[in-house]
Each structure stands twice: as structure tokens, then as C-alpha cells.
Amino acid sequence: MLTFPPFEVLIQGILSGIFMGFVYALIAAGLSLIFGLMEIVNFAHGEFLMLAMYTAFWMYALFGLDPLLSVPISAFALFGLGVLVYYGIIGRILEGPMLAQIFATFGLAIFLRASAQFLWTPDFRQVGNALVAGPVRLLGISLALPQMVASLAALAAFAALYWFITQTETGVALEATAQDRQAAALMGINTERMFALGWGIGSACVGVAGAFLTTFFYVFPDVGSTFGLLAYVTVALGGFGSIPGALVAGVVIGLLEVLAGLLIAPAFKYVAVFLLYLVVVLVRPQGLLGKF
Amino acid sequence: MRRPTLLLLGLFLVAALAVPLVARLPYHRDLVIKVLLFGMLAQAWNILAGYCGQISLGHAVFFGTGAYTSTVLQMTWGMNPWVGLLAGVVLAVALSQVIGYPCFRLRGHYFAIATIAVGEIVQTLALNWEAIGAARGLSLPIRPDSIAAFQFHRNKYPYYYIVLALLLACLAVSAWIERSRLGYYFRAIREDPEAAASVGIPVTRYKLIAMAFSAAFVAAGGTFYAQYVLFLDPESAMPLSLSILICLLAVVGGVGTLWGPLVGAEVLIPLSELTRVQFGGTGRAVDLIIYGALLTAVAVYQPAGLAGFFRRAWGR
Amino acid sequence: MALLTLTGVTKRFGGVVANYRISFAVQAGEIVGLIGPNGAGKSTLFDVITGYYRPEAGDITFENHPLVGRRPDQVNRLGIGRTFQKLRPFHAMTVLDNVTVAALQHEGDPTAARAEALRYLEFVELADKSVNYARELSTGQRKRLELARAMATRPRLLLLDEVTGGVDQRTIPTLLQLIGRLRDQGLTLVVIEHNMRVIMSIADRIIALHLGEVIADGPPSEVVKNRRLIEAYLGDAFARPPREG
Q1: Which ipTM was obtained for this model?
Q2: Residues 166-225, chain C, touching B (beta carbon < 8 A)
Q3: CA A217: distance to chain centroid?
Q4: Topology at the third CATH level for domain C1-78+158-163+187-240
Q5: Would you state the CATH architecture of domain A7-119+142-283?
Q6: Which is more confident, B150 or A111?
Q7: pTM for the whole structure
Q8: Judging by beta carbons within 10 Å of its beta carbon (0-12, 13-18, 19+), is residue A33 exposed, middle or buried?
Q9: pLDDT, tens digit, 9 for 90 and up, residues A101-124
Q10: Which of C50, C83, C84, C101 to mutate to test the interface with B (most CBs of B within 10 A)?
């Protein structure tokens, strides 16, 4: 059942897995941030990514803007979307029943995906002339430049996020709200604003990731669903609410996906990932570095 | 039963029995059968999620199990499809216990995601399992019209009555559950599992019971589907989109009530057909746009769904 | 033979020791008051006894049945009922349904269970609110509802977590009467309470916890003079020796 590919392919696969892993980590970090704050899983997270990718694509298609330059636009747009969704939807169901919390964002996901299909058709879109394109040879191994750039950028964004959370006053306030909502409120922190900020930043992470993904991924309405599912697994593995955990978990998932695809069969790469999710939540619910 | 409920039930039965006389076109007949089938599936999901509060987003797994079990038994060993239906139900219930036992330890969101994970794993396995046709699927052998063979070709109305019977059975069982000790326990578990345990309720056991009832009816629906469409593949029998549709109908219609899911199916499925007709090519997306918006709106504003909305309008 | 016996019960949460080597026995028919400053580990002890947490060390025996390792529903079916400090009625269910759920344990038929539930509601003087939803009740009413719900499981030992907390002063005498009636019914009670006057008036015996340990165990008149206890509550400035003469 296990088939070993040639050594070079294996190394390329492992590196590719690590690169994608950093991107997964950034996507998951956003989800984890939101969950850490208010114990709500954003079931529309994948669709947010999809919107980020379309943003970068349309900036390219309509204005010739390279996706790398669209990163701030995409991040900003998604930040706004996150805040909007918080005030419009999430803020109203924070204290509600589990059903409301799950289906509010689930409904949003369906709505966004279908709207994208309606507005932009199910066609696969591609950014043709990205600044970063093509393979690069390093020590005899062929690496995809767009993936490398995306992963380095994801890592940078991740570091920036971590710095923000631990070193800035707002960031610390955010963490404090995540740790103990009541205590934070007693200390004068505006928890409502923190929640909205959390949604904004979490979504901005996805905005960054999405723009970079456009350099080597097709853009289509359904693209968010797989990334969304992978994000849940990553967050669960890393530990819901743990940003550093998301990084470790992202790389693990990225590697697992590639290795399962190479060693077993491409059709089974997600089976391995989902099995990992089940094993993790059943054996160690708090994940690798998580609090819950 | 209260008088208004009896009256509603009576009206429903009369309407239901009269439909075949009124809807003569195959298109309408298919639509009505679809409404009843999905109404039943949504109500079955409701038993687990609405009454007992366990949100499963992977219920299509049981649908596929029912459909494939009866079909494979029929094609490989010539087993009668009705016996196959029972076998499918048994297998689905067993599967539900295997899935539920470890997963019920998980809290709300984690459980929901776990059910998605299970659903995806099973669908991928089915897509690659040669013995059951893999991605190509299975075409059921055509048999001459008969109840025993569970196939009707010239006059498809027996299908309608069969699915109506399934729906009524599901509603009857649900009504019985509501009034029995099971109903009380399910609701307590839904409200607060820890408090429920403090009054002596073995929480996991009752969750598994709810799961069993739910899976059983969904599997029966799966066998019906296989016999009706006479073709089966993992894409149509156990996709995530089917799981989501079932939840959607129940939630928008009114989760935790007896009539909500059926109302959801009666409103949303014709709506979907309508948008398909109106908007042509991209029609499929328009119904989903409405579904998504409705689902979020119901979750935020009116968790009692359309049924709750109607009940308010009726002044009850 | 004691009804409930704890021996060396220790419960840790990571680095925090919530209960440390707790040992005591409760005799049938007693009303035991469990007191101590906030964070002393009282509610946690209830959670450990009723199976929500598993202790790291120690034994708990109820009527000769070992309790450690049993699930909360099993503990309840053995005969121990409890209320919660942060009240947890079934909010979206009616008052009657709340108690019926509990009554169904012994009275399998819903109609009979409902009738029995009504009797318990009458006992706690909440029968007139039967058709109201639990979330509509005031704090005092919710306390009585939880009491009725716990009673409906026909326990022989009742663990009451905070009887008078958050309750209107005027309602306290009614609640105290209720507790007295419970004892008359043959129930044994362990009551966590912060209101010292209440405890002094109803308890046969007081067990005091501080930082997870038992620091006093005896009749109220003795415990009240316990220096360590006074220190724990008020700081050692107050724990001066009693005046001479």
C-alpha cells in the first residue's frame, strides 16, 4: 500500500509541505485567535480566504496589480469584513445556544460561497503573470518560487501577529480578554471592542494568506472549503486558542498532507489529515499547546 | 393530542393523500417525492440535533450506508431490497454507535467538526472502494414493477406512498419520543448535560439512543433513494452538501419541533426549484444564496425557525 | 456506621491544590455545615464527591459503596443529590418539566412522574409556577427549583451548594424552614454556606476548610472559637486570645 517515490521527489514534497504548512499556520492563527477570545468557531473562515483570493485576483484582472502588491488591500478588506461580521452577526449570538453559534457562521459560509458563484461564475481563475513565478533550483532541488515566497511571507505575518499579541498594549489586552473575559472587563478593557478587533485581525491573517495563495493557486468559489476544513484540523491539533500551537500544527498538517499523498495515494491525503483530527481531539482535547 | 394539532394533522393527511391525484406531471411528482423524502431526513436529523442538541454535520454517511447496503446486497446476493433496507438500517445504527461513542465526549463545535471529518473520510473511502463501484457508482438492475422488487416504472406513484409512509413513521416515532421519558432526557441533555447527569441521566447512553433513531430513518431514506433513482455513487449518496442540506431544512424550518423540519422542506425545496427555473444556468447558486442568508437569519433572530414564526403569527 | 466517609481526599488542578487530605464522616440524619473563605475548595469538594472530578488521592464511601471513579449520574442513582452554586436549571423547560426529568428516574411513566414532580414543587412552595419557564424565575425561586429537582431523585444525602447566596433577606427564613423539613423527611444534608447566622442556626456540626484543608470539625459552639478559623476569615489581627476576666 505504501509506495516510495524517488528521493528527489520526496525532498521536494517535504519542503513543499513545510512551505504550505506556514500558510496553513497563518490561516489557522486567525481562526485560533477568534476561538480563544470567544469560543466560537468561524465556519466561514475558508470562505473569507476565498474572498481574499478573489480580491487579489480582481485587483490583478481589473487594475493589473500584482498579488504581492494586493496584500495590504486584501488584508485591509478582510479586516473590515471581520469587524462587520462581528457586529452584524456574531455579537448577537455570543450568549446564544450552540445551534445558533454553529449555524450563524455556517449560513454565512454558504451565502458567501454561493454569492461568489453567482457573481463570478464557477470558472477557475488564475493570475497569469505574477511577479513571482516558476521554479528555482537550490542545491539541486527544484522549488516553486511562489510557494517559497508565500511561506516566508506567512511566517513573517505570523511573527508580526505574535509580536503584536505579546508586545503591544492592545495585543496584550486582547490576550487578557481571551484568558479571562470578566477580569479584563474589570480592568477597564472594552471587551466588545476586543472581540471586534479579534475578528478583524483574525480575518486579516486570512487576507494576507489569500493574496499570496493567488500566486500559485486557482481561484474559484469552492476553494475555501478545503482550506477551511484544514484550518479546523490545524487549530485543533495546535490547541484552540494557541497562536504558537497553530504554527507547529500547520507544519505538521502540511507535511502530513504531502506525505500521505506521496506515500499512499493523492486521494487519501485528506483522509490522513482528518484521521489526525479525530485522534487529537479524542486523545488530547487541548491539542499540542492549547488551553481548552 | 390537542385539537389544533389534530386538525393540522388531518389536513396534512388529506392533502398528502390527494397530491397524486392533482400532480400528474412527472416533474411535479418528483418534486413532491423530494419534499417528503427530505422532510423525513430533516426530521430524523432533528431527533439527534433538535431534541437532543447534538449537532451532526455528517449525517449523509448514514444515507449512503443505507443506500449502498441494500444495493450491494441486492446486486451481489439477490437479496430483496426490503430486507436490504432493514440490513441498511441495522448497519447504519451500528455505525452510528461506533462514531458516537468516542465523539460524544466532545463539546459542541469539536463534535460538529468531528462529524464532518468522519463524513469526508467515509466518502473518500467509498470513492476508492472498487467492490462497491468506487467513483463510477452502481446501476441497479431494472426489475419489472412490483412492490416486492421495490421498483415501479410505468406508474411511479407507489414511490410517493412509500416515502409518505416513511415520513409518517418518522413523525410518529418523533411524537412518541417527545412525550416519553426519552424526550425529557433528550431535552435535559440538550439544555445542560452536566446538570442532567446530576439528576441521574446517563448522558452518553441517551445521546447514543438519539443517534440510533436518527441514523435508522436516514438509512431507510437512503435505500428508498437508491430504489427510486436506480443509480448510486458517493457523490450523490454521501456528499457534505447533503449533510448540510438536511441541517439547513431542519434549522430554517424549526429545530426541536415536530413539524419544523417538514415545513422547512416544504418551503425551501420548491423555492430551490423555482430559482433554478427563473435563473437558468446559475440557478443553483441563487437557491444557496437564499438558503445561506435564511440559515444565518434564523440562527441569529429566530432560532425557532419558520415553525416558530408561523406559531407566532397564529397567535398561539 | 457513617453515611458518607471521606479519607485523605486530594484534588489538584495543575499546580493548584484545591483539596488536600480531606477526611471526615457524615452520620445519617445530620446537617453538616461546610464553611470557609472563598477559594477554600468547598464547591470543588462537592464536585469530587459527585464524580465531576476524580481525586488524585483518597477514598470516598457512601453507604459502603466506593464513589471514586463513578460518573455523576451513577453517584446520583446511588442516592446523593446536589444543587449547584451557579444555578443550573434547565432554562428552556418549564418548572414542572425541570422536576419531572428528575422524577423520571424512579417513576418511569411521564404522567406519574409529573404528578410526583408536582408534589415536590408543592413541598418547596413553587407549585404555582409550574407552567413558567425556568428562566423566568427569580434567584430565590431558582434555588427552590434546584432543590425540588434534586429531591425528586429521592436521595438519602443532599449536598446543597450555597442555600442563601444571592437571595433576598426576607426569603431566608422560608428557606431555613425548608431545610428543617428536609431533615424531618429523613434526609442527611451537607450545606455550603457563607452566611454564618444561617449555619449556626441549622447545623449540627460544622466543618471548616481553608486553602483546601480541614481546619475545624465539630459542633458550632466549638468551631466558632477556633483560632485558625478566625485567622482564615479575618486575618490574624483578630485571632487574639480571649480576654481574661
Answers
A1: 0.89
A2: none
A3: 14
A4: Rossmann fold (3.40.50)
A5: Orthogonal Bundle (1.10)
A6: A111
A7: 0.90
A8: buried
A9: 889 999 999 999 999 998 998 888
A10: C101
